[in-house]
Amino acid sequence: MAVAIEHLTTEMPNNKTIDIDEKSPIEIIKLMNEEDKKVALAVEKESHNIALAVAKIIEAFKIGGRLIYIGAGTSGRLGILDAAECPPTFGTSKEQVIGIIAGGDKALIDAIEGAEDNFDEGEKDLKAINISNKDVVVGIAASGRTPYVLGALEYAKKIGAITVSLCCNHNGKINDLADISITPVVGPEILTGSTRLKAGTAQKMVLNMLSTASMIGIGKVYKNLMIDVQPTNQKLIERTKRIIMMATGVTYEEAEKKLIKAQYNPKAAVVMIKAGCSYQEALVRIDNANGFVNKALEK
């Protein structure tokens, strides 16, 4: 059965790139750069809705809920990428932010584009992770009409989870199932219908905002420092020492000593230094402050 997509902005031809196949490499790059400049402006127009979603995500985290991204193709991969970065960056569990893609893990590498057409699989994949009304489900689809994402959002809404849509077309069908709609309309792609380009960039920017602002909202950042970063390799161990130095003004040697005493917990090390307390007291202070370093340092 034919599906009408010609009315979608993301499927329309871009008149500015109609002869891109005749351009030199530098001309192509300049054209792409000019089009990409439009992405940040489109995202900016959605600031209010993004902030509304962040507030709901923070509320969900505080009651033990999760942030769940679900999408197909490029959209699904972007959700999984953002989810995968949260544990090392913010010290979250792998269950707190989850990414799901139509077609499963194999779809991360191999394009299984037909998987996006299965409405029932969206619901099935959410059931597999036992979503509840404590969770926030973000359905990601550049077109706004992907059946897999529609199925997921319909089920999420039915069980009482907060639903958020992220698409790049006005009047996207997924918006009808969302409590909060985020719609950065970036215009036609430089390659007609190739939503891995401007639409994908817009989605990545929004996902960065959703996860980062939400993590700041639950105490995962001190000043502008990744205070809960997990020092799981040599580079991250060195970064952690620098974070302690920047947060407290101590020397490299002192930061290293305190990090070891804090059992490689940078947040605890900072509180130990700034409050002049033991590791155990630092942990108590942090717990009483719900993870916020500023509050943990209050007398």
Automatic annotation (TrEMBL):
* One of the GO biological process terms: peptidoglycan turnover
Ranges for domain SIS come to 57-220
Q: Which UniProt keywords apply?
A: Carbohydrate metabolism, Lyase
Question: Record's PANTHER family?
Answer: GLUCOKINASE REGULATORY PROTEIN (PTHR10088)
| Top enzyme category | lyase
Its EC number is 4.2.1.126
Record protein name field? N-acetylmuramic acid 6-phosphate etherase
Gene expressing this chain = murQ
Family named by the database record = Belongs to the GCKR-like family. MurNAc-6-P etherase subfamily.
Q: What does the miscellaneous comment read? A: A lyase-type mechanism (elimination/hydration) is suggested for the cleavage of the lactyl ether bond of MurNAc 6-phosphate, with the formation of an alpha,beta-unsaturated aldehyde intermediate with (E)-stereochemistry, followed by the syn addition of water to give product.
Q: Which Pfam families match?
A: GKRP-like_C (PF20741), GKRP_SIS_N (PF22645)
Instruction: Please give the Gene Ontology molecular function terms for this protein.
Output: carbohydrate derivative binding; carbon-oxygen lyase activity; ether hydrolase activity
